[in-house]
Design brief:
149 residues; two-stranded antiparallel ribbon
Length: 149
C-alpha cells in the first residue's frame, strides 16, 4: 500500500469515516456497518493506535527524505506488531491486599521502501537442492563438500 493511501485511510479512521475491521481478536467488539467493505462484521475506530501508526509513518517518511528517496514512490512493505515485556506495578486493594497492575506494551515494526521489480522464482528442479531428511552431520558434510567444489 502506498504511504499516501495509508495516510488517507488512517485520517478517515480518525474521523470515523472508515473502520478498522476486527477479525481475529473480536470478542466483545461491536458491529459496524462500515466493516462490510472489508468482508467483516465487527470493527472499531482505535484513535490511540492510529495516532501511533501515523507517527511511525511520518518518521519513516523523514528517514526516506534523509536518504534522498522520492516520497511519492514509498510503499509500506510490511507492518509487524509483537508483544513487549509487561510493565509491572502494583495496586493496593481493600483489606490489605495487593494486585498486579500491568501495562501491555508492544513493539511495532514498519518496513517502508520503494516498489521494486518482483523476481520470478526459478521453477527448475535442478536449481533447488533439497536437504530434507538429513541430520546435522550430513548437512555439515554437504556444506564442506560444496565449499571445496
Amino acid at each position: 500500500m502506498k504511504v499516501e493511501k495509508a495516510y488517507k485511510y488512517l485520517f478517515d479512521v480518525k474521523e470515523h469515516k472508515q473502520v478498522i475491521p476486527y477479525r481475529r481478536f473480536s470478542g466483545g467488539v461491536g458491529r459496524a456497518s462500515q466493516a462490510k467493505q472489508f468482508g467483516a462484521v465487527q470493527g472499531r475506530w482505535p484513535e490511540k493506535s492510529v495516532k501511533f501508526i501515523l507517527g511511525l509513518l511520518k518518521n519513516a517518511e523523514s528517514n526516506a527524505d534523509a536518504k534522498n528517496i522520492e516520497l511519492g514512490d514509498l510503499y509500506i512493505k510490511n507492518i509487524v506488531v509483537n508483544q513487549a515485556p509487561k510493565t509491572r506495578r502494583r495496586t493496593y486493594r481493600a483489606h490489605g491486599r495487593i494486585n498486579p497492575y500491568q501495562g501491555h506494551p508492544c513493539h511495532v515494526e514498519v518496513i517502508v521502501g520503494t516498489e521494486e521489480e518482483h523476481v520470478e522464482r526459478n521453477k527448475d528442479k535442478d536449481a533447488v537442492v533439497s536437504y530434507q531428511g538429513l541430520n546435522r552431520r550430513q548437512l555439515a558434510r554437504k556444506r564442506i563438500e560444496a565449499h571445496r567444489a
